[in-house]
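Q: Sequence in, structure out?
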Amino acid sequence: MNKEFIAAIEQIEKSKGISKDIIFEAIESALISAYKKNYGSNQNVRVDIDSETGEIKVYTVMDIVEEIEDENTQITLDEALEIDPNFELGDEVFYQVATEEFGRIAAQTAKQVVVQRIREAERGIIFDDYVEKQGEVVTGTIQRKSGDTIFVNMGRTEGILSAKEQVPGERFETNDRIKVYIMDVKKTTKGPQVFLSRSHPGLVKRLFELEVPEIEDGIVEIKSIAREAGSRTKMAVYTEDENVDPVGACVGSRGSRVQNIVDELFNEKIDIITWSEDPVTLISNVLSPAKVEEVIIEDEEKVATVIVPDYQLSLAIGKSGQNVRLAAKLCGWKIDIKSHTQYYGDDEENDDEYEEEYEDTEETSEDTSEDTYESVSEEESSEAREEMTETDAETETDNEEEAQAGKEETAGEEIPAETEEAAEEEIPAETEETKEKADEE
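A: Exactly. Output:
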């Protein structure tokens, strides 16, 4: 029986991850509760369990006093000396109680206490485990949905992905595997509750740490992240190693590393920028892909006025101000963007310079928020060249017809005698034939 008892405890320890000491403590508490249920709640009880053999002993404990005030917990010295002549005042006398004497109700109480204590211990272990994982990314399976809330099975517990922590446009079905960011862990009466997120900037940071070895090893550091979930993320990276390109390390060969993260985030756009301690350089970088002409900063108020070429203004601001909004979050500066004309006024001297720069830059599309650029394709250029060739051919044909008509008019007039001889010498044979036809007409 004792071997079966120890085997059962070892099985609980293995399956629940609860140590033997906690289980033995739970059983001791259960037996104490059962004894008090059977013999009275004011009894002083002690339980000893041998962890090797599984033998359980229950004792009532009596204090040795001169005068008895509580018969349930005290005994006189004379009574104690009858049991053992070595007892003294203040010692304790232990009376062993047979556990078989416990009634059915007491046994049921013991069972409930054991189950409750094991459950509490398990919840405590889960809570401690996930508190340590707070701020990390874990993979789970979507177990069920309740309204807009998604419940994710993470193995030992269930995580909660609320509607406000989901990304607009992302759709998941039951049993789909999903990577989530552990945002918070709380202890409640129903056990630990793990709150998850798909929109937190920390999700992007942790995904890059998993994907880029240089970040995990500490060679490349992520300085700051600004994110509008489902649309765009800007991330600033830095390294002290001159032989490492921080942006290139994050992008990977042919963009393989960043593409894996973009796929996980359902094609959310990611801008990776080089961090700089110089605010002018940093602000110029964070407004990428827009080109910056000049940055004027006010250190005390942390306000920066950024001047961009006129044709870059909409790109620098972004759709609904998204680009400049993310840039301001990323660098921690308030950014005011102005075009060259808005700041300096009309400057004719710089017109040629801007024209050349404009010709070298691809025209931006109407949707500047997606930073897409439109250029004339080779096919369109080929069609344009064919149209131009056809137009030139038509023009050449018209010119030939006008020239021919002029020749015919000239052929109908009389040529003076002194000119006829020269004409006969200089005009080629083809022209003479043309003249004879004209005379006949």
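The chain is about 45% helix and 25% strand.
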